[in-house]
Specification:
Elements: E1 2-11, E2 14-24, E3 29-33, H1 40-48, E4 55-60, E5 63-64, H2 70-74, E6 77-80, H3 92-96, H4 107-120, H5 137-149, E7 155-159, H6 167-184, E8 187-191, H7 195-201, E9 204-209, E10 212-218, H8 228-235
Parallel strand pairs: 3-8, 3-9, 6-7, 7-8
Antiparallel strand pairs: 1-2, 1-4, 4-5, 9-10
Helix pairs in contact: 4-5, 5-6, 6-7
């Protein structure tokens, strides 16, 4: 579903991505790990067409993103943002159905879809008319997840899905992400520092360090990768090849 071929991107003298190649089969979950500033977010922006790579290709379902109208591709994507990115002035149901409100469905139909998606992530219908500020952090994250799946996208990106959550709620979100994407048959890419999320969500793992794919492989081989960068990252050790002062 997603193929990156020799992707490179620099901002002035800052080489963010260096010859990155990755492959995500349809219906699979790739989790990208790596330290802050390693290029993970720019990778996502290149796939979405928000950033134009200096070299290489992004291919979505056999279509080269750089040669295709971006608007014709974006409807296939859903996105769960790290900080929620909910609209403070809109009620929850309009947040969830924001994309659908721009389409042919009536407001009544969009509201019904939004309530259905809210229920799928474990929220009651009465949440629909609340504003985001009235919700806890965990509930806001669920609303963001409901919005990400509102249009039944084929591809979903999760940017740090458990950031700011306590361990129990993080586990709930991880389970929801895995269950829902499996039900939908969606292809997913997750960016995270949380190793519990990696182990709960991933089919495949890729580690990016200094703009380079340092290691990639199935989740079952992560702990025996024999890669010094991977070993330091997953153990959270200050000693190793990854500089701790950035």
């Amino acid at each position: 579903m997603i193929t990156l071929e020799n992707l490179s991107k620099s901002f002035g003298s800052n080489h963010v991505l260096r010859d990155v190649s990755l492959h995500v089969p349809k219906g699979q979950s790739l989790v990208v790990i790596g330290g802050s500033g390693s290029g993970k977010s720019v990778l996502i922006k290149c796939i979405l067409g928000l950033v134009t790579p200096d070299a290489g290709r992004v291919i979505i379902d056999r279509q080269d993103v750089t040669q295709t109208d971006r608007a014709s591709l974006l409807h296939r994507f859903g996105m769960l943002f790290q900080a929620g990115a909910l609209f403070d002035s809109l009620p929850v149901w309009q947040n969830v159905g924001f994309r659908l409100l721009r389409g042919p469905d009536s407001r009544k139909e969009v509201r019904e879809i939004a309530i259905e998606k809210l229920r799928r992530v474990g929220l009651e219908a009465d949440v629909a008319d609340k504003i985001p500020a009235e919700l806890s952090g965990g509930m806001q994250k669920r609303v963001g997840l409901a919005r990400a799946i509102a249009a039944d996208p084929e591809i979903i990106f999760f940017d740090e899905p458990t950031t700011g959550l306590d361990p129990i709620m993080a586990g709930v979100i991880n389970d929801l992400v895995r269950e829902i994407t499996a039900e939908m048959g969606a292809t997913t890419i997750t960016i995270t520092h949380d190793m519990s999320s990696v182990r709960a969500i991933a089919d495949q793992v890729a580690m990016i360090h200094d703009g380079i794919v340092q290691w990639t492989g199935p989740i079952g081989t992560l702990d025996r990768s024999n890669d010094a960068y991977v070993a330091q990252f997953i153990a959270g050790r200050p000693e190793g090849p990854i500089a701790t002062i950035r």
